[in-house]
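From the pipeline queue, job 12 of 40. The input is one protein chain; the requested action is below.

Action: predict structure.
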Amino acid sequence: MKLSYAEENYLKAIYRLSRQSENGTSTNEISHYVETKASSVTDMLKRLAKKEMVNYKPYQPITITEKGRLMAIKTIRKHRLWEVFLVEKLNFKWDEVHEIAEELEHIHSDKLINRLDDFLNNPTHDPHGDPIPDADGNIEHHKDITIADLTEGQIGMIIGLKDTSSEFLQFLDNSQLTLGKSIKVEEITGYDGSVTITINMTTRKTISHQVAKNLYIKKLTR
């Protein structure tokens, strides 16, 4: 079944919101996420419910069906593969690819996407560290551990980002806080939660709590 661009975008939003709560999401939360009025969201939910993509009843939590989940993951898979292609093959920077991939993700050709996957040697993560679903819809999400969760003396490696805005990505480039860098927490300031870290055991830097909680890490042993 082919969905419109708007339907696919809504499903992505509902899927992401549903991962934050087992009890479903609400019209207002979706409205805030997609930045449109609640009445438009309600109209879309009715359309998606007719296509068995979501479970929707007025004044009740909205949940995504398995059919809808697989469609959302399929769109996410296309988006992340296109980001890899743009960075690795066309030399775009990681802060330049999101908007382009937002357009390319709506191409309806499984054959094209599967060939793209093979052409890229079946990557497991996009340029921002996000996991790429396989062709069957399987996806292994990051564990929700960030630099902000580390204690003084602990070490981790940056493996992903919560915030993938171009502004944040540019900040990370300028701060040498890119994927694969090791981080040791030297000091945490109680007043504002800012964190003094050592990057790759050489560069010492202080980052805000906001930055720290937007960088996924894998804990490392000394």
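Job complete. Helices lie at 5-18, 27-34, 38-50, 66-88, 98-104, 110-119, 166-175, 209-212.
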